[in-house]
Design a protein that fits this description.
This protein is globular. It folds into 3 domains: 278 residues, 2-Layer Sandwich (BirA Bifunctional Protein, domain 2); 58 residues; 114 residues, Rossmann fold (3-Layer(aba) Sandwich), CATH 3.40.50.800. The chain is α+β, with helices and mostly antiparallel strands. Helix 2 packs across helix 12 and helix 3 runs antiparallel to helix 11. Strand 8 and strand 9 form a beta hairpin. The relative contact order is 0.11. It has a 9-stranded mixed β-sheet with strand order 3-10-11-17-16-15-14-12-13. A 6-stranded mixed β-sheet has the order 21-20-22-23-24-25, sandwiched between helices. Strands 4-9-8 form a 3-stranded antiparallel β-sheet. The chain starts with a helix and ends in a 5-residue tail after the last strand. The structure holds zinc ion. Zinc ion binds next to loops.
Length: 488
């Protein structure tokens, strides 16, 4: 299984550690640490998202992650954001009722209402001990806390709500001109019942959510993008996705507004820029019965993972004027001007980062490597002296010092050169740079390409320029004279 190989590599090579805190009884499920390589990779994913939003005039803000109860009453999360759980009488295991029904009664439709769930649960025994199940309960997905000694509060289950609360400030900042866009990248928390899907379902995670504030009347005539891209759209009433140009999808009424089509196009462009394989992406519409309480329309960009099948990595929602109206009402603040609608792009950063890992995993005979898109690997350059003597480490350290100012660099002198290449292949280091005896004579070094293992010789004085070109995706072999070195 690719999943086992990828998650094993992720653990061994410092991408994803956990569950956290691992030294205490193996950790708590639903919490993970991003190790040194993982954090570097995640940062790069975040940069692509940030750059994507910025290039369509969205501006970034940062809000607190804890808000008093009234905010969540207004947003609807306090009364609507829950799962149904069910308990085993005997072994006391707790399950998510809808998941258990889906697994045990695959031919039955799940309706999230107490009476319907009760009927179905009666037909199911505890998967653990085969005893009857009982006590269906509503289980809030929000993590609660207290501000000061007694103010009931919650950790945010999404960044979006905290972004909306600043609407009067934006209105002034953007000089009352609509539409405008704002985004936030930060942590959110959901108290999942029993998370078992690695980093796809965690209790703490990073969201990157962009919000376009736009007047209702402008939704049908304003577009932020050119609407020329073909996207693999899967309507809720169809079996297979069709590749369709956004303009055409609008004409066919698959999508409800021009502005919505354009943010869907922007979201897809960002996901493609991260480097996920387009053949493993589809965009699926929510069934009208499954729409969130605020949504007019919602499509998810999904990536086909090996273990979990199609997983949502980004959601695109038309939230209408629901949020702003509710916050105006609950806060007793009259918001200036006409209340706009909100179109949202919501990306899950950890999910995208994991998908990029799985997408990049390669295996051939006894070589394993991560073939990230150029420039996306956690380490840009590894600097390796061929051997640990004859002044090579000293020379290599000079090169390392020079490159470290501009790139994420790693200096590695332990083990044979072959082993060091293998280690760097496994973490997807973009370029390895070897200093040998010739380097002392003519100030040239060998660069090795992680995709092909082919090598070129370049002058140290040209190194920065050449590495920049490789990171930008230029043809590796055209940048220097190819050399053949035997690796022992
Ligand atoms: Zn049981």
């Amino acid at each position: 299984m690719a999943f086992d190989k990828v998650s094993d590599l992720a653990k061994r090579r410092g991408f994803i550690w956990g569950p956290s805190p691992n030294i205490y009884n193996g950790g708590v499920s639903g919490f993970y640490d991003w190790g040194i390589n993982g954090k570097l990779l995640k940062n790069k994913v975040e940069s692509v998202i940030r750059k994507g939003f910025s290039s369509y005039s969205f501006f970034e803000v940062e809000s607190p992650t804890i808000m008093p109860k009234i905010v969540w009453e207004a947003s609807g999360h306090y009364s609507n954001f829950f799962d149904f759980t069910v308990e085993c009488k005997k072994c006391k295991s707790t399950y998510r009722a809808d998941n258990l029904i889906k697994e045990s009664l695959p031919n039955e439709k799940v309706i999230l209402e107490m009476s319907s769930l009760e009927k179905q649960i009666k037909k199911i025994k505890c998967p653990n001990c085969k005893s009857p199940l009982e006590n269906i309960k509503k289980y809030s997905l929000m993590m609660s806390t207290t501000i000061g000694s007694d103010k009931e509060s919650f950790l945010r289950p999404e960044t979006a709500t905290t972004t909306y609360l600043l609407y009067p400030e934006y209105h002034r900042f953007f000089r009352t001109k609509l539409p405008f866009g704002v985004f936030q990248i930060g942590k959110a928390y959901r108290n999942e019942v029993s998370p078992r899907q690695h980093v796809f379902r965690t209790r703490e995670f990073t969201q990157a959510e962009a919000q376009l504030f736009i007047l209702k009347k402008d939704k049908s005539n304003i577009s932020l993008s050119d609407l020329k891209t073909k996207l693999p759209l899967l309507s809720y009433d169809k079996k297979d996705p069709i590749d369709i140009e956004m303009e055409k999808a609008l004409k066919n009424k698959m999508l409800k507004s021009k502005a919505y089509a354009s943010i869907l196009e922007i979201a897809y462009e960002i996901i493609a820029n991260i480097g996920l394989d387009k053949k493993r992406i589809r965009i699926k519409q929510h069934h009208p019965d499954e729409l969130a309480h605020y949504a007019l329309d919602a499509w998810d960009i999904e990536y086909k993972t090996e273990r979990f099948g199609w997983m949502e990595v980004c959601g695109i929602h038309d939230r209408q004027d629901y949020d702003l109206k509710r916050h105006s009402e609950y806060s007793k603040t009259k918001f200036p001007g006409e209340i706009p609608h909100i179109l949202e792009i919501a990306c899950g950063v950890e999910r995208l980062t994991y998908c990029l890992l799985e997408n990049s995993f390669r295996e051939e005979k006894d070589r394993v490597w991560l073939q990230f898109p150029r420039g996306m690997g956690p380490i840009d350059v590894a600097v390796l002296p061929l051997i640990q003597k004859d002044g090579l480490p000293e020379k290599a350290k000079q090169v390392f010092k020079m490159l470290e100012k501009n790139f994420v660099c790693l200096y590695d002198e332990s083990g044979s050169i072959g082993r060091r290449y293998a280690r760097n292949d496994e973490i997807g280091t973009t370029i390895t740079c070897t200093i040998d005896h010739m380097s002392l004579k003519d100030n040239s070094i060998t660069l090795r390409d992680v995709y092909t293992t082919r090598q070129i010789r370049v002058k140290i004085s040209d190194l920065k320029k050449v590495i920049d070109c490789i990171m930008d995706g230029e043809d590796f072999l055209k940048l220097g004279k190819e050399v053949h070195t035997r690796v022992k």
